[in-house]
Amino acid sequence: MSSRSRSDDRIALLQGTLDLLILKTLVLGPCHGQGIGRSILRRSEEVLFVDHGSLYLALQRLEDKKWISAKWGVSANNRKARFYSLTPKGRQQLTEKFSEWQRLVRAMGLILEGGMLDGGTDNQEV
User: Global pTM?
Assistant: First the structure.
């Protein structure tokens, strides 16, 4: 696999992860971009910070795919903001992406927590 392909795979995984976080956040109801970012940060116990550039690119990508919709409204601090909502197509994608994420987490757990399952012949170090 070329380094370009590996890089593209990593970008797709990262985008898919951010997409999942955004879709899951919008299950709770419509929210503006900054609110989505704050929710992800708060719900991850301050571990996952999504910079504004990445967040708004992801929101635009999800809107282009019709997974979310947006309309203008007024935020709690009386500012004009775009509020994003999950569409039926987005809800379906959330289910699919969540299943993919569960498979990935399970696979990682098998490797990281499973110990040596092959009788100790794996002598590679981490």
Answer: 0.77
